[in-house]
Write a structure and sequence with these properties.
By secondary structure, this protein is α+β, with helices and mostly antiparallel strands. It has one helix at residues 18-28; strands spanning 7-9, 31-34, 47-51, 57-59, 63-68.
C-alpha cells in the first residue's frame, strides 16, 4: 500500500511571478523546474503554464515544470490554427 502522507498537492502557480512560485513550491517541499534546462529560471517572469497541473498529488521533492509568458508553450497547449 502506498504511503499517502508523503504526497503533496501541486499548487496553481500560473499567473504568479517565478519568485513567488519558487518560494511557494520550496515551502511545500516541491522543486520548481524551468522547461528550458539550458537557462536559469527568469527572476521576473510570469508563469503561463505548469506541469503537472494544479491539484495533482506529487511526491515530496517532485519537480513542477513551468513555462513563462516569454517561452513557447508545449505543442499540446498552443492555440490551434484554423485554415481559412
Amino acid at each position: 500500500m502506498e504511503d499517502t502522507s508523503a504526497r503533496i498537492e501541486v499548487p496553481d502557480v500560473v499567473g504568479m511571478t517565478t519568485q513567488k512560485a519558487h518560494a511557494l513550491c520550496r515551502d511545500l517541499g516541491l522543486f520548481l523546474g524551468y522547461f528550458n534546462l539550458d537557462q536559469q529560471l527568469p527572476r521576473h517572469g510570469v508563469i503561463a503554464h505548469q506541469e503537472p497541473p494544479a491539484g495533482t498529488m506529487a511526491s515530496a521533492v517532485a519537480a513542477v515544470r513551468v513555462w513563462t509568458t516569454l517561452d513557447p508553450l508545449p505543442d499540446d497547449r498552443r492555440p490551434q490554427q484554423f485554415a481559412p
